[in-house]
Amino acid sequence: QVQLVESGGGSVQAGGSLRLSCAPSGRAVSGLDMGWFRRARGTERDRVASITWSDITYYADSVKGRFTISRDNARKSVFLQMNSLKPEDTGVYYCGAKIASNEFDTWGQGTQVTVFS
Predict the structure, then answer these.
(1) pLDDT band at residue 28 under the 50/70/90 scheme
(2) Contact, 16 vs 89, CB < 8 A?
(3) CA-wise closest residue to 58 among 34, 86, 39, 29
(4) How far apart are CA 39 and CA 107, in angstroms?
(5) What is the pLDDT of residue 35?
(6) Quick count: other Cβ atoms within 10 Å of Cβ 92?
């Protein structure tokens, strides 16, 4: 069973940057649709950014121009570069992948991102 291993969360002052990483265990990221989702306190888990197997990207309106999702096939990882962070970006970030279906069906353990003003 594929597991997604995340890293890179933390606490940062507003305006700062963080980079999240996600690596599937036992397989490459090439050929996979993958994404980053955020769960803020009291809300649903919402898609922040995603990248298809053909490298088509999606960004939520709230992060456009500030976040960048990318794939590194050689390092078998997907990254989320987060710049100009705002307090409202605070939440638990989950890496997701479409492994066995056309839906995001495999999830990482989540990594906390806290942005303080």
Answers:
(1) confident
(2) no
(3) 34
(4) 13
(5) 97
(6) 17
Q: What is the distance between the alpha carbons of residues 15 and 34, in angstroms, rounded to a whole number? A: 26
Q: Which of 53, 62, 66, 56 is nearest to 102 (CA)?
A: 53
Residue 69: exposure state from Cβ atoms within 10 A (0-12, 13-18, ≥19): buried
- Give the start-end residues of each E strand in the chain: 4-7, 10-13, 18-24, 34-39, 45-51, 57-59, 67-72, 77-82, 91-97, 106-107, 111-116
Q: pLDDT at position 41, please? A: 86
What is the residue type of 24?
Answer: P
CB count within 10 Å of CB 86 equals 14
Condensed to tens digits (0 to 9), the pLDDT of residues 95-116 reads 999 998 999 999 999 999 999 9
